[in-house]
């Protein structure tokens, strides 16, 4: 996992903050190519900030992010947008925009002045909508969609961007159980079938353990631990990172670890 050639993204000694408040302090993290990496940790630990920095939407105080061994600070915006796609938490769009119009926004990094919309653009949009099963919704207004339909439309926009790296910040937030599974199964399929490198922020530890190849626990501005779900889903680690006592069992269907929370380690 730590072979430099196998790292699609390499976060090196990255310090991130807001004003004088340091959120992540000299953090280093290799993100393997063609795998699903899940970032987990308590609220405010810097998961979303790290994801934004990987997409160069949050300037570091120090350190750097490498993409295929190239410093992302050296890439122009559209070039980076053709290589890394980011779906932020709770994105917004005009309510009267159609689904197809939303998905077409994903082609922006591929556009240039005086360059007309091309058959390749049409094909990318059609493929993205088909892959997320929103083709039948293409004429629907964004404001008329259910939560699950809207999330699939946003993911379609990211797919239309045709990036090899996909970053998703809490993609199952506010979705019911069925739509959570639909969303994560779609992401997993993209990883398996197309070899996309995926970085996810998830709060649900059991979903993280089911889908992650690499699981990363963040706490106190640092990486508390990273490794496979089997390595990280331990009662002592969960207590130290999340302040929760828990027991770990094995999922009888998927064979992955399952966390059964018992209570707060330090009741308020």
TrEMBL record:
The keyword Hydrolase does not apply. PROSITE patterns: ABC_TRANSPORTER_1, ABC_TRANSPORTER_2. It comes from the Bacteria. This is Iron complex transport system ATP-binding protein. It is found in: Cell membrane. InterPro entries: AAA+_ATPase, ABC_transporter-like_ATP-bd, ABC_transporter-like_CS, P-loop_NTPase, Siderophore_ABC-ATPase. CDD domains: ABC_Iron-Siderophores_B12_Hemin. Belongs to the ABC transporter superfamily. Keywords: ATP-binding, Cell membrane, Ion transport, Iron, Iron transport, Membrane, Nucleotide-binding, Transport. One of its GO terms (cellular component) is plasma membrane. It is a peripheral membrane protein. GO terms for biological process: iron ion transport. GO terms for molecular function: ATP binding; ATP hydrolysis activity. Residues 9-245 form the ABC transporter domain. Its main location: membrane. Pfam families: ABC_tran (PF00005).
